[in-house]
Please model this.
Amino acid sequence: MSSETRNDAAVQIDGVSKSFSGTVALEPIWLKIRRGEFLTLLGPSGCGKTTLLNLIAGFLEADEGELFIDRELVTQVPPHQREIGIVFQNYALFPHMTVAQNVAYGLRTRRVSKAETAERVAEALALVKLQDFADRRPRQLSGGQQQRVALARALVIRPRVLLLDEPFSALDRNLRTAMQVELREIQTRLGLTTVFVTHDQNEALSMSDRIAVMSQGRVRQIGAPDDIYDRPANLFVSTFVGDANLFDATLQGVQGGAAELIVGGAPLPVETYQEDLPEPGPVTLFVRPEQCRLTGAEEQGAVPAIVALSVYQGSYAELHLDCAAARGGRIMLRVPAAKALPAGIPVGIALPRTGPAIYAVEDADKEVA
Amino acid sequence: MTKRPFLGWFASPSILIAFGIAASFLAIVQYSFRANIPGALDPGGFTLENFTTLWKAIYGDAFLNTVLLCLWTAVFTLLIGYPLAYAMVRARSVRLRSAILLISLTPLFLGEIVRTYSWMIVLGNRGFLNAALMQMGLIDRPIPFMFTMTGVVIALVHFTLPIVVVMLAAGLSHIDRNLERAATSLGAGRVRVFLTVTLPLSIPGIVAATSTAFAWTFSAFATPQMIGGGQVQTISTLVYQVGFASFNFPLAASLSLTGLLFTVAVLAIFNTGIRRLERIGGH
Amino acid sequence: MRKSLLDHLLDWAGRIVLIAILAFVLLPFVVVAIASFNDGAILSFPPREWSWRWYANAFQYRDFGAGLTNSLKIAVFGATIALIAGAGFAYVLDRYEFRFKNTLNGILMSPLIIPNFTIGLGLLILSAAASLPRNLWLVVATHVVIVMPFVVRSVYVSLQNFERRFEQAAESLGGSPWHVLRTITLPLLAPGLASGGLFAAILSFNEFTASLFVVNQSTQTLPVAMYNYVREYADPTLAAVSVIYVLAVAVILLIVHKFFRLEKVLNVE
Ligand SMILES: Nc1ncnc2c1ncn2[C@@H]1O[C@H](COP(=O)(O)OP(=O)(O)OP(=O)(O)O)[C@@H](O)[C@H]1O
Ligand SMILES: [Mg+2]
Model:
């Protein structure tokens, strides 16, 4: 690893791993977080997101590997000397202190002068729009307000990295959206390197510069939100992020850059973004619902299906279709609410020629999220 | 990274105390194998005589009395304590709950002497109970409660009741009320709900309470001493008598040691029996 | 909702049983209160004449005053030592793995099963063998051994329910381990520590059996003085002492109940 590549990384994780009494929580992980970047760790429950965050914060000690923050080796540095800001899901505001005392805590440990402390606390509270709440106790605040105090408390020490572990999961939907926007604004303004943990894919897609999708202690793909959504690297990412329709297909060969597939008895040439395709033979075809087009039952080359259920969702309707060619016999499409069809109507599904991905069948058996 | 920054500071005082406990235990073991020299406080050479002495009838009787007292006390304390704990946890009015709590728990903080002395006044030949019964014309001669097993059991039940209630109530309060509601919704009446849901689920509390009642009764001294008045000898009263009346500390030590081994054995048997019971209770 | 006849019967039976049990619990205290006002030196029910003389006698009897002073001293020192040692041990028990942890725990908790007379006898023999003086500190040591398991247990429960995130947040904000302990852990544990210490003091104040083995004339505690009084005199002075004792404890408990809620302290919520 050259020192130059290390230069632009605010946090560098080199082969860090962690087991708890025999069970592996985190396989060795290599990850570079860029300065000023908003990186989201996304993954199902138990995949090791919190473990990774705790390793960065220093609450856990890595079994192996090294950790750098601002090029400084911190693997052996205790949490209180790491200069890291952290916001927890349940806020962890000190109940025996006022809002101002909570925010001032990190300045007092640094022996910042009284005058400067007062100034910086006021500034931080203004940043999260809580100037008027300085003398309240945490339990006199709403959930959203408590979350802001926790954020102010972490920001006031001007941390080298800000870590947030599912900070908004206890908030209702509207408040959550508001907080997401607010956090992103503050983060961009301060140019703060941020690691954000969530298992909410919409949150991840809308907020992040980059997303690291994790499962079972491994990072399965890291990339910009559109990379993750449009060009998933494997079946796990395909199915965990966004909705997926999977078809049983046969790969016959590759001709002129297009894969020759048979789906539901009909031939389908497909251009994928993938560099590696599985061996010819039975494969799994992955298509996003919005890439499928609903047609009449008799349309040439369309995969036949029957409407099983139509679910009204306000601006659109979800059509759940019984389809013999689909894995598990079911696929889902979204149509304008006005175009919803009653159950029992036979339809056809036209599959796209570009965009979908092809995976080996054995992947599908173990990787569907 | 120092991962256990306070280990030395925080553990040292308790290590010191643990050494004290271990040393006093060893002192008892050591003394129980030493000969008694009448008139001298220092013990003589090594001997097994103390343990052979224990085969004498008065020591056997003391063991038997102690076991019987433990048994009766446990049975009656559970019978009285369970309804009390149930009422304490389930009473609807907060005031009633608080009242039950204070009344049944205050004795816990009163110590053995006050409580035993009070029972002496209640149970004596000229005491409250006999006076009341005679006044009502139910009896014409006092019933002897003092210096009898019955009297000692009554006072011991009163002595162990608070701690048993605390433990039963702790167990009962952790039962999810929705389980009972579910049973009711499935058509079970109150009695059936209690017998099929509440009681089985409170078995862990009952078990904990019983073993505590046993330990407390076994270790009780003032009650058998003052109410038994030398007529109801237990291991505790005998240890005191051998030590402070005969000044035979080696024998007192061997008696204590035997008693302790006996307690440990009973609690161990108890614990293994319990695991089976708990399986029935679904834990 | 209409109640069946059986339900009504159950309700009434339950009430009667509850009242009977509460009466059993209260009976000796009511009786001792009546007896304390009995004018004659020999008890009779109902008392023929009433008087306060036994209360006066209780306050004049020297051993009770000396015993009370000793008991208070012992309770304060014993509970303080037990609280410091016990809280420290509960902390390492909850947070750390170390060698001999289980052994240490087993030894420190053993007084819960070892009868108090055995503990008293053991410490008496030990002090004799080590030629230690039989002074107040021996009594304090005995009480520390006896009450410490209760302190450890109560602080341990508080620690188990303690939200570790508070400490982690404080650490990430730059607090060193000692600073976090002082500014976060201790203040948040204060209620648990206070109730543990108070509980220890009350237990120590009441301890009788083990004390009987280790005290001498000058270090005797109040319960021992009371026991010795019953052996020597038959008059109702001790009834008067008992009434004062019960009232004092009830008042203390009421105050504790107000501040801590006993249900919580005793884990019966
Ligand atoms: N202290 C611990 N002791 C034992 N196992 C642990 C411990 N902490 C975490 N684990 C295990 O490690 C794995 C990863 O846990 P982690 O908390 O990192 O998951 P997560 O991705 O944060 O999940 P969630 O979304 O539910 O918070 C899980 O299988 C978990 O059971
Ligand atoms: Mg987590």
Observations:
- Chain B touches chain A at residues 1-3 (CB under 8 Å).
- The pocket of adenosine-5'-triphosphate (ligand 1) is lined by residues A 20, 25, 43, 45-51, 199 (CB under 6 Å).
